[in-house]
Amino acid sequence: MSTVWNGARRRIHMQEVGPRDGLQMESVFVPTDDKIAFVDALSRTGLAKIEVTAFVSPKAIPALRDAEDVMRGIARVPGVVHTALVPNVRGAERAIDAGTDELNLVMSATETHNLANLRMTREQSFAGLAEVASIAVDAGVAVNISLSCAFGCPMEGDVADLVVLRWCERYVELGASGSTLCDTTGMAYPGQVAALARTVRNRWPGTQLTMHFHDTRGLGLPNILAAIDAGVDRFDASVGGLGGCPYAPGASGNVCTETVVHALELMGYDTGVDLAALLDVSRRVPALVGHDVASPIVK
Fold this sequence. Notes:
Elements: E1 4-5, E2 8-9, E3 13-16, H1 18-22, H2 32-43, E4 49-54, H3 67-73, E5 81-85, H4 89-97, E6 102-108, H5 111-118, H6 122-139, E7 142-148, H7 161-174, E8 178-183, H8 190-203, E9 208-213, H9 220-229, E10 234-237, H10 257-266, H11 275-289
Parallel strand pairs: 3-4, 3-10, 4-5, 5-6, 6-7, 7-8, 8-9, 9-10
Antiparallel strand pairs: 1-2
Helix pairs in contact: 2-3, 2-11, 4-6, 8-9, 10-11
């Protein structure tokens, strides 16, 4: 596993999902000003991308009912992409109007999880998200597709690579500039990750590939290292390990951003992240959400 690329330390792009994927799971409403301060502090650490919020119905996710105010209120830091989850055309219009850099479209690789999570079949989700992609492309806003349960489903079990590849292909054809393969409940293992990563990279070399792992079975970091070995250089993570999946009881949060940054820096990779500044943000997360968080580096 080489940490050097063309004579320089190999760059790994860290993408923070705590403000959206993490806060949406919290029972308390984090005040808007606190959310803005949270994102601003993360933006100053050197992260490549931050998922700021979700432009969804306030009834669906009350914790993120202030999406427009947060997106408009954050400070824009050069080099940092501020993205948001968008489920439909109305959400896309709101996100674009608020100045979102990228729209993140989400559906599941499996029918059962998609029905539970989005209350639609996969074909219904695709039809709606195709409209969203068209609006984004016309507006000159980047599109990323996140495919949940790409490495296994808590309801259907194993997911065939061909299923994942088929959905990736359909979104690439719509003009998506990036795709994220999500290990929604922590079922992935290193050999599986490496094989699928190589296949996706070889098939769509011009499309950004991100991996999104959860640490339910303690394989989050090994999976990241396997993906790096297969050529992946973009990873979602959540400060303090915030997050989870409401339709997968027992699933833990996302891999912890500071844990990943710490490990990769020690291994000689360039994450571009100021670990001390990131740890300072992580130390403030318990006060933000009202409970302790799983950050072994902080502890």
